[in-house]
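Fold this: Helitron helicase-like domain-containing protein
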Amino acid sequence: MVQSDDDTQSPNSSVLDPFDYVYSNIPQSTNVLKPEPDCKHCGAKRFQYEPPSFCFRDGKIKLVQNETPLELMRLWTSSDPDAKHFRDNIRYFNGHFSFTTLGVSLDKAFANMSSGVLNQRCYNVPVATDVTPVWVEGNERRKFEPSVTIYGNDRTRKSIQPFYGCYDPLSYPLFFPRGESGWHQGLPKDKITMEDANARNGDDPNCNSRIRVSVRDYYCYKMRCGIFNSILHGGRLFQQFAVDMYIKVESSRLDYAGESRASAVGKRTVLPTSFIGGGRNMKRQYMNAMSLVQKYGKPDVFLTMTSNPKWDEITHELELGHTPQDHPDLVVRVFRAKLQDLKKHLFEKHILGKVIAHVYVVEF
């Protein structure tokens, strides 16, 4: 809801078109984000509205960087024909050397929207080669637990959970060519011994603990730029890696929501309202939005902001031969910064008039 200066006019004054106020304030130049100093701890690129501690937690997180052999580094960066062929078929080569298999079960019923629906929204045919996950609700929790099954020399079978340190090198040998351990629940922060980290075994693995590195902080560190990072050169494999690791982050939050209530053992788990994206959270957000309509009336402005892969902040950070689809980390960071800047112009600078109430949602 927007309140403009025209609302204060007397009834006898001439009535102006309310949209004249909007059209007269349309900027004529592209709004570029203000430059920010790089991270003082690692030199990682920072965008406007990103806190200084977004990657290193003010120096509390220091992890060993994965070593990349020279020949593999050449394949990541060179313009030679064999290097281009390697990057174009990166998921095939990773699957050839990995000890795991990525299985996909397609459900064509979701894409069959021929019953009069005009816009299929997120079920439209993709226009870019992106990788995305789909969660399925069900009563059997074990059915949807991600795991990796390995077989020993004696043909014994063992399941490897995503929170095991060996999950990442087994699944992505091209990113962990020397078998470096990935994230695990007991990973200590800087200047914290492993004994102290193991002593806090009951902590939430996703919280901002003073002792351990959370799964989110770990992969935020691993996806930073400023040094040679083979993960950021992975193309479609990086897309798969980002999706896989995000599922790991969400799984840790879901596990904490289901296991932190000792009284609910053996009972059906209901996600709390604090879990973003959960049913109760979405219902509460909807009820809050409807309360605004009851108090202030119908909204006056419906504004849509769409991410543009050709934004200067994105194209300037891409290396030669890279595309925005290959860098979801960069696209979402720039979009968030642009969104924060738009909110500042709307709610603080009042470019469309004084805002008395607003609701916004971000869709992927």
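The beta strands are 2-3, 148-151, 157-160, 354-355. Residues 1-55+300-364 form one domain.
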